[in-house]
Amino acid sequence: MAERVEASVTDGESTIEERDRELMREFEEGLDQPMDEEANMLKDMNKEKGLSMLMLLRLSFQSLGIVYGDLGTSPLYVFYNTFPDGIKDSEDVIGALSLIIYSLLLIPLIKYVFIVCKANDNGQGGTLAIYSLLCRHAKVNLIPNQQRSDEDLTTYSRTLVAEGSFAAKTKKWLESRHSKKRALLVIVLLGTCMMIGDGILTPAISVYKTFFLTLLSATGGIRVNNPKMSSDIVVLVSVILLIGLFSMQHYGTDKVGWLFAPIVLIWFLFIGATGIYNICKHDTSVLKAFSPKYIYLYFKRRGRDGWISLGGILLSITGTEALFADISYFPLQAIQLAFTLFVFPCLLLAYCGQAAFLVNHKEHYKDAFYASIPESVYWPMLIVATGAAIVGSQATISGTYSIIKQAVSHGCFPRVKIVHTSKKFLGQIYCPDINWILMIGCITVTASFKNQTEIGNAYGTAVVVVMLVTTLLMVLTMLLVWRRHWIFVLVFTILSLLVELSYFSAVILKVNEGGWVPLMIAAISLLVMFVWNYVTVKKYEFEVHSRVSMSWILGLGPSLGLVRVPGIGLVHSELASGVPRIFSHFITNLPAIHSVVVFVCVKNLPVYTVPEEERFLVKRIGPKTFRMFRCVARYGYKDLHRKDDDFENKLFDNLFSFVQTETMMESDSNYSPYSFNHRQESRDELIRNNNNNHDKNMVMFSSMVDYTESAIVPADSPHSAMSFSQNYRVEDEEEEEDELEFLKICKETGVVHIMGNTVVKARKGSLLPKKIAIDYVYRFLAKMCRANSAILHVPHETLLNVGQVYYV
């Protein structure tokens, strides 16, 4: 919290200090309370988790549908993609099974469930959530809009680094150069882009592999009985069902997926029981695959072909990366319990059962899953497989929405429409624009690839790149956040990279066989994200360097050299400190300004959420007679600007509370401001000087900011004392005491939102790539994305756009 400004008093000093301490205790106790309904639910959930095993089991059951749908459908197509040209030796099946067993053990179970998932940001998962953690523990954010007061948020959890430690050295190394920060962001964006590609490929590989919901593995099972079925019909039905799947998304995950958990539960029970049946019926000797020596014998026997087959083995762990992205839905213990005691054993039994069948029926390598099912349960299994595949697709689609929301909050993706689909759960969202882009991508992939092996190669490439990115980010997390010993970090890194680079080397050999698809998707997504982030950073830097000198504002006098008309003007800007350039542009071109001016900054912080009570920071700019304030609204990457939030009224509530608290503090402490001398020049002279010398004004502003603006503190804080200084004398004390009433009257008179309609252009002499990125790519994206007025739900009749051109 901002430090309270010491005020000189003549008597009653001890009483005031005691009152201050009491108010501070009340304020901090208020911050410790649950911030919203969701926070209450999470806190109650954690209590029950610790006390009730029944509650933990219930949450573990619910996690099956959301978290494990994608991973659970992998047995449909793994063996075919591992042996696309047939099985020559039964021992090859044992070797492949051994690779599957240890892949499931090392990657999903050990690495993700018990290590990576612990790197969640207050329950939020994914590469951008790890990036948020790193931004709080090191100064790696490329947009330097954070303030000291932001670190006092209850959700801004971080640990201090001890000087001289390995973590401190790592932090210093990471912060030393801008290029390292940029490289870190590119790595994070690469993983995010691959997850977007995953959102396109998962429904494609799932829906293409059923019959009536047309996943190819299921279709292969039907073809055993109906060999004349055309692949073109399968593709056509797949496209129709993809359109239906994406058309239902606007109903929300809560409504579309209400049967997720029961379907996946039945699916895992089916594949586990079928696995036991096949092991007992066909060949129990497949259990020797638990010995890792068969991995060595497999590569020795098959050589290069065995190494390339790792691309098929990789599909057995697809969905693991989505597991971490979907962790926000349930407590970590519930996810660990479900995977360790139920999902993992069922998957092992399913793969062992298929291997036992293939040892004696090598000719069924294409349709091993359905051919190994007992005839009595064939059709029920097909129906359940169809439902399970849709569950896996739905979980990935929902995860893509969350990733896009995080990217938008970090300034790495164009502003898109985000809709809440549930009043109970804030995490359930829907992005219409992204939904239709995903649908078009899925249809294109499904129609273009009429071979399941090519789709599998593309899918595997996306998955392994996400895993590699997660490993690199985990190294920094272990060093900076967890403070693990470097030896432990080294062991984790070597083991993870040994497995994942092996898979990567296998899938990279199949780039021309479908592996180019996720690379192309990632390249397009990365171009969009990088250009948007680059121009966003440059815009912010331009605004910082062109902000208005405070001496210029004070020199204009209380009237600002204009006619002050009744009402309140909300001047929107990205600056959290200083007077934005848009304001000088406004007052130099118009003869009037509102009687009350509030500079509004809406900024996103690297935290998952900002509690409602801590969202707004209010401070005063200049003397009271200027009637100028600043309000900073802070949001986390999980927070949304909902229409029913009533942003404007909440802003004014905090403004009124600030004025009321400020008046109370002044009356209690015999407030005595510092002295600050300024001379009032003519308006024309000041405007001319300001326009001709922005850099000089910037220097003046930097040296005077502590004396001209009040401390940034929450509006409800008793320590919202002011730190600005002027030597003016208030002539009308009654008017000063009635400032709150004056503000309310101005609000009733009318509120106008003043926003910049900014056009960004590349500077003259810029290199050709920069001109293309800014003048064409960014301009196109800016035209397609949502305006800030739409995101904040500003009524059109109260909006005033001020045109500006930024040369960056």
UniProtKB/TrEMBL annotation:
Its main location: membrane. The keyword Transmembrane helix applies. Residues 60-553 form the K+ potassium transporter integral membrane domain. GO terms for cellular component: plasma membrane. GO terms for molecular function: potassium ion transmembrane transporter activity. InterPro entries: K+_transporter (IPR003855), K_trans_C (IPR053952), K_trans_N (IPR053951). It is a multi-pass membrane protein. It is found in: Cell membrane; Membrane. The chain crosses the membrane at residues 51-69, 93-114, 183-208, 228-246, 258-279, 306-325, 337-357, 377-404, 425-447, 459-480, 487-509, 515-537, 549-570. Residues 566-806 form the K+ potassium transporter C-terminal domain. It comes from the Eukaryota. Keywords: Ion transport, Membrane, Potassium, Potassium transport, Transmembrane, Transmembrane helix, Transport. PANTHER family: OSMOTIC STRESS POTASSIUM TRANSPORTER, POTASSIUM TRANSPORTER. Potassium transporter. Belongs to the HAK/KUP transporter (TC 2.A.72.3) family. This is Potassium transporter. It comes from Brassica napus (Rape).
